[in-house]
Specification:
Elements: H1 7-26, H2 34-68
Length: about 70
Amino acid sequence: MAKDLTVLEEIIGQVAEDVYNKWAIALPEDQKTEDALSALSKNAYEVTVLIIQNFMKRFNDAAEELKDK
């Protein structure tokens, strides 16, 4: 049975896949090994999580500032 994903998890997965595809296309053909592509996939996910977390924190901080005015 497949795990139900939250909307945020789905977004992270989709964005991570886009990042991976962009990086994989840019990688020279002679460097596209199974290990390299696996590392790209892992890094794409980690970078996506980091970027979304930073965005959400900054967005929430800005909203709090506006709310306090």
